[in-house]
Amino acid sequence: MADEIQYASSGLAGPWYAIIRDDVGLVWDGAAFVAYASANYASYVVAMGEQGAASRYFVGDFPVAIPAGLYRTTVYRDSGTGPAEGDTVGARLEHHWDGKVMVPTWLAFHAAHLIAGPKHEVARGGATPSRITVYELDGETVLFTLTPAAAAADKTTYTKA
Q: What share of the chain is helix, strand, coil (3-state, %, to 5)?
């Protein structure tokens, strides 16, 4: 994979870069997660490049050597003298990395909640479901119901109600 780290600048030109921390605050130095030390700041930088000449959209590769887990990536704007402490923070991202894909934690939580957590019922009108109802974890509160779209004769396209 490539370009997993993405940041759209609200007008400031680059260069931009990222620094990755694990769930206990250790920082990635290109080989391992280590305790932060000001003297080693340059070794923590993950380069980001701009897509196009002036898109203000910057991307960088999340290191594939990082094991699956929860991470916090901070995107900084280089002040012009090279990456340094005190550079402007553009964004803070919290995400789950599975070794191939970066998923925002809010999305990972909701996906796990919908897949593994709640009760769900499938009403069938033949071979394909005619209605899928997903409940909150309490098993009573309906989160949403999916019904076949009217135009889909094969009932493979659902609409959320």
A: 10, 40, 45
Hunting for tokens 């694990």 — which residue is that? 22
Give the mean pLDDT of 121-130: 54
Query: How many other β-carbons are positioned within 10 Å of the β-carbon of residue 41?
Result: 17
Q: Quick one: pLDDT at residue 104?
A: 66
Is 80 exceeded by the pLDDT of residue 127? no
Tokens of 114: 């919908």
Indicate the helix (H) or strand (E) that contains 147: strand 142-148
Predicted local distance difference test score (pLDDT) of residue 69: 84
Place of tokens 């094991």: 67
How would you classify residue 63: left for phi > 0, otherwise alpha for psi between -120 and 50, otherwise beta? beta
Burial class (CB in 10 A: 0-12, 13-18, 19+), 116: exposed
Q: Please state the domain extents for the chain.
A: 5-104, 117-160
- pLDDT score of 17 more than 70: yes
Instruction: Name the residue with higher pLDDT: 5 or 120.
Output: 5
The residue behind tokens 């919290």 is 94
CA distance 136 to 128: 24
